[in-house]
Amino acid sequence: MKKSVTIFILIFIVVSFGGAMYYLYSKNAEDPVVYETDKASTKSIVKKTVATGSILPLEEVFIKPNISGVIQEVYVKGGDIVKKGDLIAKIKVIPNLSSLNNARNEIQRNKIGLDDQKRNYDRQKSLFDKGVISRQDVERAEVAYQQAQQSFDAANRNYDIVRTGSTRGLGSSANTLIRSTVSGMVLEVPVEVGNQVIESNNFNEGTTIASLADVNKLIFEGKIDESDVGKVKEGLPLEITVGAVENTVFDAVLDYIAPKGKLENGAIQFEIKGTLKKQDTTFVRVGLSANASIILAKADSVLAIKEALVQFDKETKAPFVEIKNGDSFERKDITLGVSDGIHVEIKNGVSKDDAIKVWNEIEKDDDNENN
Question: How far apart are CA 64 and CA 36, in angstroms?
Fold first, then answer.
């Protein structure tokens, strides 16, 4: 009995030892894990955020009439260059019946007064010629007659203005002649001959006959999301790209950030404006859609690596990479700089010659297939 137990124990020991040796042999026979490596390179990194918007004039002037009527002539069209004082359009006045009747009654009233003063003057002059009254009396009658004549003439001119919008003696000041108040390009003429227009006054904005602007002074007007508004500030450079103008980037400067956001499509948007630098070689049409890249930070010709190579310590959150040293890798702490989301600037800790560990294990079979 004891002999059989001893034999069983010996067999168990031999089998266990054999299994252990086989396990160790299998582990040693496995190929070691292989990792790719990458190296740092010199790059220019730009950190930016993008805003969408359009190209608008710095100042757009709307030409409005100061008298109501119907467009009789239009002398300009979109794209024309005009100077201050140039004729834009001519208006035919459609008189208000009540005003026209009042003006006509004013003529009749002043005509009666004029006739009365003329008779008095003729009477006083006859008496003066006979030596009955003094020169002072006849001169007083003459002044009253001249004032009545002036009031009558003024009533006739007012009637002409009410009826036609103009009268003799006004020249270029006639209300029916609409002239440009500034120099620039005509952007739009929203009226045509025959359209009725309303005068601009304290109670009404009036009908726009034309809009003008200096197309050499353009701005970008767009909106950015609330998640980006804290990153930008006035004075930052902008790079404007216009979809209709290929292969051209317009430089601009951020001038304005709205202090209050507006809810649009479920997100808070803030308005921004940037002044474009003048480019004589390229004509940009007003109203074109554009994108503005707001340059938050920029590093020219710096040592950089891919952000995917950077690891962070679980406790300190300090960045580091693993550098190949022989057949193994060792940790190297690094200092990061500007990042564009793909590449990041390395201020110290890595050189151009260092082979940095890439976290993608290479299978041996894949290597053989590639080779």
Answer: 71
Residue 363 banded pLDDT, cuts 50, 70, 90: very low
Closest to 302 (Cα-Cα) out of 120, 94, 121, 40: 40
Report pLDDT digits (tens) over 331-354: 888 989 888 888 898 988 888 888
Neighbours of 137 (CB within 10 A): 14
97-129 and 135-164 helices, crossing angle to 10°:
160
- Average pLDDT, integer, range 109-117: 91
Do the Cβ atoms of 334 and 310 come closer than 8 Å?
Answer: yes
Indicate the burial class of 14 (C-beta count within 10 angstroms; 0-12, 13-18, 19 or more).
Answer: exposed
Pull the structure tokens for residue 170: 């006004």
DSSP 3-state of 98: helix
List the one residue out of 178, 173, 179 whose CA is nearest residue 82. Answer: 179
The pLDDT tens digits for 182-230 are 999 999 999 999 998 988 888 888 999 999 999 888 999 999 988 888 8
Q: DSSP for 277-289? A: PP-TT----TT-E
371 or 94, which is more confident? 94
Give the number of residues written for the chain. Answer: 371
CA distance 335 to 313: 13
Label residue 364 by pLDDT band (50, 70, 90): very low
**Does residue 368 sit in helix, strand or coil?**
helix
* Residue found under tokens 């003439």: 153
- Joined together, the tokens standing for residue 334 give 């690094």
266: its two tokens = 């479920």
